[in-house]
Amino acid sequence: MSGLLKRREFSLIVFILIFLLVMLFVTPRFLQPGNLINILLNISTVGILAMGQCLVIITKGIDLSVGANMGLVTLVVGTLLLNGVPTWLSIAIGVATGLVCGGLNAVLISLLRLPPIIVTLGTLSLFSGLMYMVTNGQWIQNLPSSFLAIGNSKVLGIPGPVIVLVIVFIVLSVFMEQTVLGRYIYAVGNNPNAARLAGLSTNRTVIVPYVLMGLLAGIAGVLYLSYNGFSTPTTGADLNLESIAAAVIGGTNVFGGRGTALGAVLGAVLLGVITEALVFFHLPAVWNDAVEGLIILIAVIADSGLRRSQRVAG
Amino acid sequence: MRGVAENRIWSLAIAGLLILEIGFFGVLSPDFVSPQNLLASTENFLPVGFMALSMTLVIITGGIDLSVGSMMSLCGVVMGLLWQHGVNIWLAALLSILLGALLGFINGQLIVRTGIQPLIATLATLFIYGSLAMVLVGQGEGSIYGFPQSYLSLGTGTVLKWIPIQLIFYGVVACLFGFLLKYTSYGRQVYFVGNNEGAALYSGLQVNRVKTITYVLSGCMSGVAAVFMGAYFASVRGDMGTNYELSVITSCLVGGVNVFGGSGTILGAFLGTFLLGVLQQGLNMLNVSSVEQSVVTGAMLIAAVGLQQLSGLFSRRRRVSRQDSSSAVETTTSARD
Amino acid sequence: MVNASPVLQVKNLVKSFSGVRVVKGVDLTLVRGRAVALVGENGAGKSTVIKVIAGVHQPDEGDILFEGERIRIPTPNFAHRLGIFTVHQEPSLMPELSVAENVFMGFHPHRKMGPVRWLNRREMYSRAAEVFDRLDIPIDVRSAAHQLPIAQQQMVEIAKALIHDARVLILDEPTATLSQREVQTLFRVVRELMERGAAVLFVSHRLQEIFELCSEVSVMRDGHLVGHFAVDELTPDRLVSLMVGREIQLQRRSYERHADVPKLEVRDLSKKGVFHHISLKVYPGEIVGLAGLVGSRRTDVAEALFGIAAADEGEIWIDGRKASVRSVHDALNHGLVYVPEDRHKHGVALNMSIAWNLAIPNRASVYTYGIARRVDEWRLTERMKSQLQIKSRSPEQPVAELSGGNQQKVVFGKWVARQPSIMILDEPTRGVDVGAKSEIYRVIFNLAEAGVAVLVISSDLPEILTLCDRILVMREGELMGEIDGKHASEEAVMRLATGVGAGRDNNGDGGPRS
């Protein structure tokens, strides 16, 4: 397995380093501490979500509702904080919200056997709607400093959220690589029939990625609110695409069965670095979506080109 | 035909629900159900209706098109820009519809030539086209307006005092689509491909061509929707189509188009469109915000597909499983079959 | 030898599908440490028997005894837990996961800490490596399954059974993709299992292998058990006779070739790793048979001719002119049609009506100006209905509701309607009841009389002998020989198909077979 790991993740690291070097050459300002911290903070959010998306895509599913899930969490936490609820409790409830949303997806997809794309398309609008209802369309800001301290904290110069990203990454990697349940998730995505024959309950296994996704959305939401300091009813809208793009760039194969947490994080890093670079080249933010969409296409086509078996054209 | 009887029952049920719905809102507010109001209110959701017609074909063949909203934005913006630069508005409208066809063609080719699932491909183009729309109009002020009155009458004008022009166009196009699906060789091929792509291939059907055409039509209808919406709102914006794919897909599924492909009717798409549309208009009247409305739409989407799944469990249908991942939806369910 | 007690017994097994009795009262006994071969031609019922044992199907009648106790085997998973493992013709692994993980799927070595099961990778790798080491198979257990060639993937499948200390190992034509050397390795593994007390059921038509591995043979024919013999009592010849040997009651036709130029000529068609140097001719009005057993690759040849998956080398000549067939469209343009082997997958759209299944492939002639009218569809349906005797309620009836025979007639109908000049039929009466069978034969004869060049691929020996004027026999992608219809016998065909006595058998150079 380690031989396989070397392939995609390694080339991603190389890519990132080359890109950074080029950028350094072009505009030294790029790697200024202030800028770097911004990039890292962004990456931490996308990275956490991308890892969850990776898990979901491995089981041949997809989650179009993550962004709204995360956004909802930020608004819930923010509202609670503004109403005097203690920080730790607000965070706990926020994360629980993410879990519940993920759980809803999980139930609809695994127990009722509804197609993930349709379900998450539906829950996307559900969660988006809830976002408006929670705050009546208002923004959340002026949060207590005890909460903001989390996002702005630094350990040895590394921003707090990045530490959280690393922790989540470690936990998830261990889960996916070292636990039997994690292996079952890969199995179900690789060959559902064989998995069933080997005694796995594909239904129950499929619940896990979506619930985890919800949990991660909760964590990411708390972090996001904490370092940004505010949230709006449309927060997180762009994160749907970014999480998928990061996962796909990171080597998660949309046909299922393949992908790693490390890849997802590296994908997030590369994506973050590229979008930041676009800003430096004065590309208006509106181009971001197009670039990300294009990257997804390229990554998926490249991946499917590698796996093309007998494809009979009509 | 797969579930012919089911389709009829479903259509009847939706038609019944529609009547109940109108009755319900009528009780709450008699003005709402006056003929003038009802007819006029259709102008709000007919753009969705146009796109639902073509989406029906896409879904029947086992695919899906998430990019319809973005295509609508891009077509609308291009139309506006062309007009701003001196092109005759009608020509601009025509060109934007052709652009839609081109965008749809790109979707189709992406899907049939590279083997990417329709889900992923159209998700990517959703963002690419949507972004392009914003980019193009960003050079202006975010929206383009000031169109000639003759064009605007497309959106708000009426015939015979009450019947919106848009509705007439929709009626004609819906009939054309209905005819296409029900009475032409191409329509038959669409059903065949959706029912058993392998058998279609082995029977000499040009599967790739059949599928590509569905996406081209989808793009066309996005352009048409943009033309009418631009007329109705008297402006086009870079984000005019955002989130429309939800309503379009929901309309189709509510209308009984089977999410796994192989069955569905234009009548169903029509009924689904109106059920959803009238619901949205009614909620509007009750001062429910548009965001809350989208919650309802999302819930209806899940309910519709859940019901389809349940009714599939009760009826004795033999599903021929598809080979590979050309269907967005089939693939993602195969992990749990 | 190991204690010779029966591990698994099947008594009086009866199984039907769609009203057709496929297994008619079969007894089978599997004894610890011994390998029993189950032979018979395709359609004899062998695969149904093993599927019952593997928990895939439930018997209609009869008993299964496991170590003396009557049991039911409701699911394949249950069979696994009993220790019954099946190795199929093709491996079905998890491509992205490592070999070791594939071997231990569902039984990962782990340590439990609270609710979490921690994978014990080291143990997994070492135990897996140990297995392959002991068997002298050079596989890196850390490599991903998809990186292995098919033969090695097959080894992994068998390693699964070994790791789980299988009590009953069913081998269902496992050597089709293996070279001689790999077969020997396989047998080594199997013998090891037998020494540990496993009972082996070996389904194969490679008679040489049967004689090498097994101590007993059960012969099935037409769903019956013909007999149970010790290997010592038999010779390959005698075995072949036992597998066949029916009275042929059906009328053959008399055929005289009139044409000079073959309608279809195939010259040296090859597809790397699939089939090699296939050459044949079919004259107008002639019915040529292509016989062979599992893995003979006849369908691949047919699909190459029909434009589904083109061959790498060789030529196709139609009507005396070289033809390029790179798509189904090309094939149809040349008047070549194909009735596929898998009716449900490639033949008909089950949930669509008869009328649509017939009309849409013929849209050019049925629909004028692209307009589809029911009246045109019904006219075609009526025509085909009467010509082929399709029994149905109405043209709008979904094909799924028809019997197998009538479904097959629909497949025929869609092609007959366009008056093809070449018809390739792949297992034309599979899943068809006896009555419809003879009707289909009549249809085939009529088509030939009308001048169509017919190529029939079939594993049903009586069928081949009844229908065909000439019989070509393929084995593992190569042509073994040709038999004239008048002098053909089931034995002769079977001999060529199994490679017995013809001088060409398994004793090759050990090079890869696929």
UniProtKB/TrEMBL annotation, chain B:
Keyword Cell inner membrane (UniProt): yes
A Pfam family this chain is assigned to: BPD_transp_2
CDD domains in UniProt: TM_PBP1_transp_AraH_like
Any GO MF annotation of the entry: transmembrane transporter activity
Family matches, as InterPro entries: ABC_transp_permease
Keywords (A to Z) from UniProt: Cell inner membrane, Cell membrane, Membrane, Transmembrane, Transmembrane helix, Transport
Membrane topology: Multi-pass membrane protein
Cell compartment(s), UniProt: Cell membrane
UniProt entry tagged with the keyword Cell membrane: yes
Protein name: Autoinducer 2 import system permease protein LsrD
Recorded superkingdom: Bacteria
GO annotation, cellular component aspect: plasma membrane
Main location class: membrane
Residues that span the membrane, as ranges: 9-28, 48-68, 89-112, 118-138, 159-181, 213-234, 246-275, 295-314
